[in-house]
Structures are given as structure tokens and as C-alpha cells.
Specification:
Number of helices: 3
CATH topology: Rossmann fold
Distance between the termini: 19 Å
Shape: globular
Order of helices and strands: EHEEHHE
Structural class: alpha/beta
Number of domains: 1
Largest sheet: 4 strands, parallel
Radius of gyration: 12 Å
Strand order of the largest sheet: 3-2-1-4
């Protein structure tokens, strides 16, 4: 089964996760400590908790997002709207 990392928060996670499920994908989300109990994580098979006291420190930290992907069998990712794709180099 293909696993999809959703690197975002809020309603967009819900929409992407629902679509991924319809396509037969497993869903992995990322979360800042502030959002760790947010409702959109209920749609995920797994949630990776990132470091950072505020969401802007977590969701825009490309090193943490790349580390979240490592070792989890993730072949696809749905990048966050504020993440620079030039900085995210998935191998």
C-alpha cells in the first residue's frame, strides 16, 4: 500500500486525507505539539510529532519533515502550502 505524508494542518489535511483514502493510500500526518490533538489527525493512520513551541517552527522546518518521512515507507508526499519545494529534496 502506498503511504502519503501530508505536510500541512487544518482543513487541507482533511481534504487530502479523504482523497488519499479513496485512492487506497495510507495516510501519515505531521503535527506540532499545539496541534497534536486536532481532529484532522483522526483521519491519519499515523501522526509524527514535530519539535517546536509554535506551529510556524514545526510545519516550516524542512529538516524535521524530511526526518518524518525517513524509515516510514513513504513514497508520496503532499507538501504544505508554505513549504518551499526547493528546500525539500526527497530521494
Amino acid at each position: 500500500m502506498t503511504r502519503l505524508l501530508i505536510a500541512n494542518r487544518g482543513e487541507i489535511v482533511t481534504r487530502i486525507a479523504r482523497t488519499a483514502r479513496r485512492l487506497g493510500m495510507s495516510v501519515v500526518t505531521i503535527s506540532s505539539p499545539v496541534d497534536s490533538h486536532a481532529q484532522w489527525h483522526r483521519l491519519a493512520d499515523h501522526t509524527v510529532l514535530l519539535d517546536g513551541d509554535i506551529p510556524s517552527e514545526s510545519y516550516t522546518n524542512s529538516d524535521q519533515i524530511i526526518a518524518a518521512r525517513a524509515g516510514r515507507g513513504l513514497r508520496r508526499r503532499a507538501p504544505g502550502l508554505r513549504i518551499s519545494l526547493r528546500r525539500l529534496r526527497f530521494r
